[in-house]
Amino acid sequence: MQTYPSPEALRRLPAGVADVAVVFGTLVLLAAVAQVGEGAFARFQPPAVVPEIDLDPRNLPYYAARSTLRMFIALGFSTLFTLIYGYIAAKSRWAERILIPLLDILQSVPVLGFLSITVTGFIALFPGSLLGLEAASIFAIFTSQVWNMTFSFYQSLRTLPQELLEATTLYRLSGWQRFTQLEVPSAMVGLLWNAMMSFGGGWFFVAASEAISVLNQDYTLPGLGSYVEAAIRAEDLAKLGWALLTMAVVILLVDQLFWRPLIAWSDKFRLEQSAGANAPESWLYDLLTTARIPRLIGDWLSPIGELGDRILSQLSQPRLGSAADPRQQQRQERLFTQVLLVLIGAIFVWIAHFIGTTVGFAEVLLTLGLGLLTLGRVVLLLVLATVIWTPIGVAIGFNPQLARLLQPVVQFLAAFPANFIFPFATLFFIRTHISIEWGSILLMALGAQWYILFNSIAGAQSIPTDLREMAADVGLKGWQRWRQLIIPGIFSAWVTGGVTASGGAWNASIVAEIVTWGSTTLTATGLGTYIAEATAVGDWPRITLGIGMMSLFVVGLNRLFWQRLYQLAEDKYHL
Amino acid sequence: MNLDRNSALIQVEEVYKRFPLPEGKGEFTVLSNISLEVRAGEVVALLGRSGSGKSTLLRIMAGLIPPSQGQVLSNGKPLRGANPDVAMVFQSFALLPWLTVQENVELGLQARGIPKKERRQRALKAIDLVGLDGFESAYPKELSGGMKQRVGFARAFVLEPKVLFMDEPFSALDVLTAENLRGEIDDLWNAGSFPSQSILIVTHNIEEAVFLADRVVILGSNPGRIRGEVKIDLPRPHDRLDPRFKSLVDYIYTIMTNPEIEVTTEMAVQPPVKEQVSSPYAYPLPYARVGGISGLLELIVEQPEGQVDIAELAERLRLSVDDLLPILDAAVLLGFAEVLQGEVHLTEIGRDFATTTILRSKDLFRQQLLERVPVFKSILQTLEEKRSHSMRGEFFLDLWDEHFPHAEAERQFATAIDWGRYAELFEYDALEERLYLAETTPEPVGVGQTPRE
Hints:
The structure holds two protein chains of two kinds. Chain A is 78% helix and 3% strand. Chain A is mostly helical. Chain A folds into three domains: 10-270 and 279-318, MetI-like (MetI-like fold, Orthogonal Bundle), CATH 1.10.3720.10; 325-358; 360-575, MetI-like (MetI-like fold, Orthogonal Bundle). A two-stranded antiparallel ribbon of chain A has the order 1-2. In chain A, strands 3-4 form a two-stranded antiparallel sheet. Helices cover 39% and strands 20% of the residues of chain B. Chain B has a six-stranded mixed sheet with strand order 6-7-8-3-9-10, with helices on both faces. In chain B, helix 8 packs across helix 10, helix 8 crosses helix 11 and helix 11 (348-355) packs antiparallel against helix 12 (358-372). The longest helix of chain B has 17 residues, at 406-422. The radius of gyration of chain B is 25 Å and the shape is globular. The model of chain B is unreliable at 1-5, 266-275 and 443-453 (pLDDT under 50). At the A-B interface, helix 7, helix 8 and helix 12 of A face strand 6 and helix 2 of B.
């Protein structure tokens, strides 16, 4: 308990100044959204007239804003989807048995695969306008964000503390009150964290989805990604540099103006009953809490909220529970499982039939071979990234000051879309005559490696000082020290990093195995190229086959490799 | 308050609760034939060890879980869904960390659709009653444990329930804080300004039950059943220094440590429903670590006559019944100690075990284990029959699963592993989840061969 004002409180802005800042900031934001949004929705064009990208760097803020708007629209949809899907999966035992495995599969489908599959449909949905392409792009970003968030929300709902549930039941909270007072708040911290991470990953896909070729036609949406694409075609390095800088500024701005305040706000939703040692801070959040206007508006709106709460509560009264007969329930469940199995079997038969009649099973073997090639690249990438970055990560993690300094940098690098760097790498490959067959590994690593580094740092930090002192005391040195202390100590963190990196690498393969600089196109043999080429010519059966094969590889790798490592990490190397 | 002294607020009529065992292996009975009444103006304590189903009974009475058989009447009407006449104080406080003290207290009123202004006033009154004024806008994480539980009480008080349920409300608090809060709640009750007509408290703390309750209902384990009740015929507030207080506590300790003893009251005692134990896996091992058992024995052996009063022991060790009694049970099961009239004393072997070297104490432990706990003989036999002298742990876990709910089966397994490892009967590889026969089959113990320390 503090009865005296903290030094931070004294340093805060006086309320009046804060109010002015809040009002001004809100107005600027509204004006910007209106300006950019108009461009996105009002300008209808026939598909023949593809909007030109103007390479003048002065247009960059506008393009950046268009890309950012897409990201936020996708985030909005992701949140909505998460709340509905996660809620249904957690509440209904029947739905859970379909929705959760389905989510697991969807999560393994490469994000750009969703783009390939849906883009023709979206274009057909809005004939004569770019809205279809806009929707496809937003959908691609949506698929890159949403699965993580949904899983996190579902997990939180399933792990609510028993006594809190009992308290809300006994105090007869309505379904709506339970949702707003217990379920969403307790999921908030995890949900926000996952949303922020996925949002960072989303930049990659916004860039990849703004300029794509479908059905032998190049489509372009105004945005940062298409600006980069145009600069590549013009072989203009300086413009690329400007785009890179803009991207960096946008990532920093979104972090400072959106995520930091939200994370700081969400700290009160932690379920631990004691105050955390270091609460996250945000200057913008401090500003908003200091200003009086937000609070006044809140007070003014509270009767409306009260009324809404009462109406929705009326509609969702708690039911007088009488539990069903468990034996009958078991019988129903068995029946349900059987129906489900038959259904899955039918789908498999249908897929086999589809492949057999369109491309033939020889093509399946071909994609399998290509998949193995790409798998080889992913494995090599993981090995290289581990060998290079783990020692560096451990060195950083063991030095607290360095870690505090570098961790945000690494986080930023992980969020930075690697495909912005691709052109530089491509140019390098062309000049040095490095084969793209090997070079694509480096391209895939540009995004994926940071997860290994990031988690190595975190893993090294989690090794207790006691253990490190003990190791020094008994004279563990060199390889012995690594084998007995460091590798076991960072193992679970490394597994987490490895899973993320491998997922990212598979996703990236679709754009990393086939790259362009000006009129030169470098093509590597692999499943990523196969999908990209099939998408370009709109070859439906091959798109489906390629993506199905890649998903199979990802699921197989997860089940056979990563899940076992997770188990090992849990059982043996749990610190 | 004290208006209709004899009107029953909640009646439990022949209630059973069974949970299905995994994979259709039948059912596990948690509560068997429970009949109970809570009348207006009384404080009732439900006292039992872990596994007696006391918390389950409380939740059935609160309408949070339905009984498998029998019914609960609240205010004369059969209960369906959450009991509207009841508010509960939880062991872990169950506060929403993102709501302030005031908002937490208002939660139940909000659910009843009471307008904001009235909500505010009633909440302030309740907060005042538990001595938390000034903390209305604090968040739970800013409060100490004792203050959090005060919020828990205020949240229940504000609803003015007919019966206040408390589920081990003081057991998550440190000793001094618990003592203080318990005293204040008792004062409120004695002063007649308590916002409910009756109190039902679940506890495993015998002193707490005698201090707070007018009536202590004692539950037995496996399956949970009512063994009887003890009237606390002391003037309120119950004086701990009263010799009658002490003898009541001792009496209840004696009952709790002897499952066969009959509880003498005017109420008819139901005969204990003894399950026919057939498989060695059906007989529950008390959940105690070897370290705990030998620690306890070493403590007792230092006592003047090698014996000690259980209530005194619990007080000195600051251990609750749930922690102390399993260790005591284990010592009795292994033939190291005996309990008579609330006193523990060591047997000859127990004395030997507590004073000898570690190697010999292992021998003694092994000897007692094989002689007195049939499940170990059975495990050993299984391992010997296998050519590899090893077996998956899951095989044994499945055997326990047939008699216990899975969580309890896992506890049984963990206890058996702990004891068996100490006795060097078998080894367990946690990563492979396999049991191995210990490599050298130990020689039988000859008494007095090893020199004593």
